[in-house]
Specification:
By secondary structure, the protein is an alpha/beta fold. It has a single domain, classed as 3-Layer(aba) Sandwich (Rossmann fold). 56% of the residues lie in helices and 14% in strands. The protein has a five-stranded parallel beta sheet with strand order 2-3-1-4-5, with helices on both faces. Helix 2 crosses helix 3 and helix 4 runs antiparallel to helix 5. The chain is globular and about 45 Å long. The mean pLDDT is 91.
């Protein structure tokens, strides 16, 4: 089996940039690496992206259901086959995002985790790219060019708190305010420690 690494964190923490850099660095070192991003390209992922564009018009429970159904397809069509083929799979968001974002809207994070882990492989390493909610909100506004109406600072603060509550032996927070290259090097060291073993 391959190795599953998930990059998580609130919006603006640099997950997509770091996932791409990590994939390139692993390939440069001879690893067969691939990146998958959630939500995926399924009909459920399309519905979620429409929600992001239009603003939240569905309940947290329905949003979680869409993420789970999208993830189920991603696991069956992409993640599990890549792991069986021995690849290093880098996830740009995974089920800890559902736990944190929908958990911050009032859903039970433990139940969300159990529901996901019934079908979704547990990551060998999850890295939480940790960023203050205020910095995240500033980055979102700068990137979108408008005051953000989808995720306010208070909501992002609660999401961040939940992400940090998930930390343990295989869920580790890293400072996402670090310069991009320095953060990338730190992430690579942590991932190599898992992929290469002791």
């Amino acid at each position: 089996m391959g190795t599953l690494v998930a990059l998580e964190g609130i919006d603006g923490s640099g997950k997509s940039t770091q996932a791409s850099l990590l994939n390139d660095q692993l390939r440069d070192r001879g690893f067969d690496s691939v990146v998958f991003r959630e939500p995926g390209d399924s009909v459920f992922g399309d519905k979620l992206r429409q929600q992001f564009r239009d603003g939240r018009t569905i309940s947290a429970k329905e949003e979680a259901r869409l993420f789970i159904e999208d993830r189920r397809i991603d696991v069956n069509e992409n993640i599990r086959p890549a792991l069986v083929a021995g690849k290093v799979v880098v996830m740009d968001r995974y089920y800890f995002s559902t736990m944190a974002y929908q958990g911050a809207l009032g859903l039970n994070t433990y139940q969300l985790q159990k529901t996901n882990e019934l079908f979704a492989p547990k990551p060998d390493l999850t890295l939480i790219l940790d960023l203050p909610a205020e910095t995240s909100a500033e980055r979102i506004r700068a990137a979108r060019g408008l005051p953000d109406s989808y995720e306010g600072t208070e909501y992002l603060r609660r999401v961040r708190e939940l992400f940090l509550e998930f930390c343990g032996s295989d869920v580790v927070a890293v400072d996402a305010e670090t310069e991009v290259g320095e953060l990338s090097a730190k992430i690579l060291r942590k991932v190599l420690a898992v992929v290469e073993g002791p």
